[in-house]
Amino acid sequence: MPSIYDLKPRFQNLLRPCTAWLARHGVTANQVTIAAVILSAIGGGLIAAYPTRPWALLSTPVVLLVRMALNAVDGMLAREFGMKSRLGAVLNELGDVISDVVLYLPLALVPIVPAWAVVAFVLQAVIVEFAGVVAIQIGSPRGYQGPLGKSDRAFWMGAMATLLAFDILSPRLAMIALVLLTTLGLVTMVKRVSVALRNQQETV
């Protein structure tokens, strides 16, 4: 199944001039990574504080788009401008998970959204990223496979927040959407684990 992650090279090309400008002005990859986490916390905080306000929900797709740009920029700064570090690798993985949790979990406070479904979705998001990282533990490349990676989650949750803002989703539809996304997340987890195990077997 195609993933939004496949569009990453084109997205990076659009951001390359901005990335070069940041590098020239002394901005580091780690600073950009931390900025993405802070931005996500602000976005989640707006929803937590104003769960019934359309403008707070509409901030979510904007935050997600900027966060995706920051994630692309920090990777290019690290790879193309010699900023790779062990700390950066740790911040990158932890930052993605923390950002997902602080941005998506407050949606459980939106009145028409089933809180348990949001919690289940966030839990699978954490597990999916863990499944990608654990591949390294057995000697395989970091896993990004599957139909609901980080970029896909961002797209669908941004779309859901937009629909909620315009009062288009009913509680039932919101629940069905979250259950479907959580199921796709579990499929993604299985895919990443199976690819990691296959790669590991091929190298033995």
Automatic annotation (TrEMBL):
GN (gene name): ynbA
Species assigned in the record: Rubripirellula lacrimiformis
Keywords assigned: Membrane, Transmembrane, Transmembrane helix
Protein's name according to its UniProt entry: Inner membrane protein YnbA
Taxonomic superkingdom: Bacteria
Example GO BP: phospholipid biosynthetic process
Listed transmembrane segments: 32-50, 172-190
Keyword match Cell division: no
GO molecular function, one term: phosphotransferase activity, for other substituted phosphate groups
Cross-referenced Pfam families: CDP-OH_P_transf
